[in-house]
Amino acid sequence: MLVIPFTFPTKRLPYCRGNVILHTYCDHMSVAKISCGNVKVNAIYGLMVALLIGGFDILCITVSYTMILRAVVSLSSAEARQKAFSTCTAHIFAIVITYVPAFFTFFTHRFGGRSIPPHIHIIMANLYLLMPPTINPTVYGIKTKQIRTCITRFLLKGEDNPSHNI
């Protein structure tokens, strides 16, 4: 519901330059930036939406982790507490690899101006879209003993055999 209104201020902009977006996908600010009009409304609304969604997410995550930590601390077994903290650490890592490139992309479009080269915007935007779905299985999978054993065996085998090192 918050994304649909992006089309209205973007549609009202005059487009007098080329229609090539310097991005690998069509995001709101990339479209707005090819206009020759004032994109201040677009930038402000985009920033408000990013902060609203990100702020709400962070609030929900904080409340959830507060409740989780209370429950974990009350566990009687040190081994159970360790396992719970380990799972939480993996989840926090997954959150960080999602939000850091996202907020970098959102904020640099609005405040970075021309000081950040377009290729950096493109790389970070692609990382924002591609990293979480590619890294999450690894982050959570490494917790599985069989996967961890296979990865360890593979890495150690590479050290023993110099021909595997490229």
UniProtKB/TrEMBL annotation:
One of the GO BP terms on file: G protein-coupled receptor signaling pathway
Tell me which stretches of the chain form a coiled coil. none
* Membrane topology reported for the UniProt record: Multi-pass membrane protein
Q: Does the keyword Transmembrane apply?
A: yes
A Pfam family name for this chain? 7tm_4
What the entry lists under SUPFAM superfamilies is as follows:
Family A G protein-coupled receptor-like
- Asked if the Swiss-Prot or TrEMBL record annotates the protein with the keyword Coiled coil, the reply is no
Where does the G-protein coupled receptors family 1 profile domain start and stop, copy by copy? 1-140
Subcellular localization is given as:
Membrane
Question: One GO CC annotation, please?
Answer: plasma membrane
Spans traversing the lipid bilayer: 43-72, 84-107, 119-139
- The UniProt entry lists the main location of this chain as membrane
Instruction: Give the keywords, sorted.
Output: Membrane, Olfaction, Sensory transduction, Transducer, Transmembrane, Transmembrane helix
Top-level taxon: Eukaryota
GO terms (molecular function) for this protein are: olfactory receptor activity
What PANTHER family does the record point to? OLFACTORY RECEPTOR 52N1, OLFACTORY RECEPTOR 56B1-RELATED
Name this polypeptide is given:
G-protein coupled receptors family 1 profile domain-containing protein
Q: Which organism is it from?
A: Ovis ammon polii
Q: Which lineage?
A: Eukaryota, Metazoa, Chordata, Craniata, Vertebrata
